[in-house]
Design goal:
Chain A is 31% helix and 19% strand. With 265 residues, chain A is an alpha+beta fold. The chains are: A alpha+beta (265), B mainly alpha (249).
């Protein structure tokens, strides 16, 4: 008899325990459900007043290498627009020159990030096979390594696909700078926070082009939406043979290159 | 139940109390230290988007220029520079759009600016118009011959240089660049049709160069002067100095 009582007690205990677990597990989900209608309002309160809804957009850039003349106006415009330090090693965008010689030797240079243009002085007597300019910029990866490594959540991929830095929240640990396979980040010498291309976020929320795209004299850069068929970028992707940088890393960049040479890395 | 609690070893009891304290402190600390907007849309502060979007603009965009400068806008859009935004050359001009009288955009006029795009460089795409600025009318600024808002190749007078290209290109980099050929050579129109039969004249004596280079000659101060009596009187000038490129040794 005694044994029996103990057994039933145990059964009741187990059942109520399972019930409690179920309630505990479901409660937050139910809460989230109730709260979701208010969520957009709260988010808007913290974000933007001008009607720009990030989840409606997906931004990307196209760069046609065969059109770039290496004038470096994009790098100048970027420094002007974003108050990038004027010292010659801080760039949000820059242009590289590739010179490929007959013996397979490849020379890559970017004197002062192309801001003063490129000289045409011969450095070797070797015959040049081909040569071209490659504008470089943050690739705004869909799978960004910099975001994965940030210990505080100060860099993030927004709902519009743009990878941004929260400069007030960044602790300046430089981990993201090391993680970026494209060398697109730097530490601001005064604020000591990470900096990078934002696709000129303050401009695109106002329906304006990024500064580098605005000033490119040969339209080598194309900017637009990736998920709208009428955007100039989608046309660019349709009309050209497209390559991306370091596809083996599976970062899924949103900067697409037309006429990309195999030597470009 | 009591039995069960008694069965737990003492050290486990103490450790579990400690563990609970640590967990509670962690939960309280994170809830206090995490910003309120963190995690609303993702693993970041929602307000960071606003911070990025609130940055001040510098470039107005070329549509803003067209509002006032529509004549220039139409000229530019009909020419070879139609794809250029105004701010490529004139610099960031949002301040000028907001306060046109107070802020004036750049007007680059020196010979350094245009060659940033148009200097010959083997890496540039073929077909892009390029020059060698060292021999392309050096010392003249680009805008004297080319209108930057409607750049067409200017009609260069090819009177002498059509045949004497080497001489004219040497002269164009020399300090004699501004002296027309006819200052030293008299050529009749017939020379163009029958060049060998009607030869142009050449200076015949030292006094001809002395018109500019003797000590008592009139003219600009920067012209080098010599004493005609003592400066190698047994030679004529062009035995030592090549008049089309006098800098050459």
């Amino acid at each position: 008899m005694k044994n029996n009582i103990i057994e039933t007690d145990k059964k009741v205990e187990r059942r109520s325990f399972l019930k409690k677990i179920a309630i505990l597990a479901l409660a937050p989900i139910a809460f989230g459900f109730l709260g979701s209608t208010d969520k957009l309002k709260t988010v808007k309160k913290w974000m933007l007043e001008n009607g720009y809804i990030p989840s409606n957009h997906k931004w990307g850039m196209g760069i046609d290498i065969s059109k770039c003349i290496g004038c470096g106006r994009c790098a100048v415009a970027c420094k002007n627009e974003n108050n990038v330090p004027k010292e010659p090693f801080f760039f949000r965008t820059w242009v590289e020159r590739y010179r490929i010689y007959e013996d397979g030797d490849v020379q890559v240079d970017s004197p002062n990030g192309s801001i003063d243009g490129f000289d045409n002085i011969r450095t070797t007597n070797k015959k040049m096979l081909r040569s071209f300019f490659v504008p470089k910029i943050c690739n705004h990866c869909d799978n960004p390594p910099c975001v994965q490594v940030c210990p505080v959540g100060a860099t993030f991929k927004g709902e519009d696909g743009v990878v941004l830095v929260d400069s007030d929240y960044c602790v300046g640990c430089r981990y993201c700078i090391q993680a970026c396979p494209y060398g697109a980040r730097f530490l601001h010498p005064e604020t000591h926070t990470a900096e990078k291309c934002t696709f000129c976020y303050h401009r695109i929320v106002q329906d304006k082009l990024p500064a580098c795209v605005e000033v490119c004299p040969t339209q080598a850069r194309v900017f637009g939406e990736l998920n709208k068929k009428s955007s100039p970028l989608v046309r660019f992707l349709r009309m050209n043979k497209i390559g991306i940088l370091k596809p083996s890393l599976n970062t899924e960049p949103k900067v697409y290159y037309a006429n990309l040479d195999m030597e470009v890395k | 139940m009591k039995n069960f609690l008694q069965k737990i070893p003492e050290q486990v009891k103490r450790l579990s109390v400690l563990l609970i304290v640590v967990i509670v402190v962690f939960i309280v600390a994170t809830s206090l230290l995490t910003p309120k907007d963190f995690g609303l849309v993702g693993h970041y502060r929602a307000s960071a988007i606003k911070i990025n979007a609130d940055q001040k603009m510098q470039y107005a965009g070329q549509e803003a220029c067209a509002d006032c400068h529509d004549d220039m806008w139409k000229t530019k859009n009909a020419g070879f520079h139609k794809n250029l935004s105004c701010e490529v050359c004139h610099g960031p001009s949002l301040n000028h759009v907001n306060e046109p009288d107070q802020f004036k955009p750049d007007k680059p006029r020196d010979r350094i600016f245009c060659p940033v795009c148009h200097e010959y460089n083997p890496s540039r795409p073929t077909g892009f118009p390029q020059i060698l600025s060292a021999s392309h009318n050096p010392r003249r600024i680009c805008v004297t011959c080319h209108n930057p808002h409607n750049p067409t190749p200017p009609q260069t007078p090819k009177e002498c240089s059509a045949c004497h290209a080497e001489i004219s290109s040497a002269k164009s980099v020399s300090s004699h660049m501004d002296i027309p050929c006819t200052k030293c050579h008299e050529a009749s129109d017939k020379h163009k049709l029958h060049p060998r039969e009607y030869l142009p004249t050449k200076p015949a004596n030292r006094e001809f160069c002395g018109q500019c280079h003797s000590q008592d000659a009139k003219g600009d101060k920067f012209i080098p002067r010599i004493n005609m009596a003592t400066h190698e009187p047994r030679y004529v000038c062009w035995q030592c100095h090549y008049p089309h490129l006098p800098e050459a040794q």
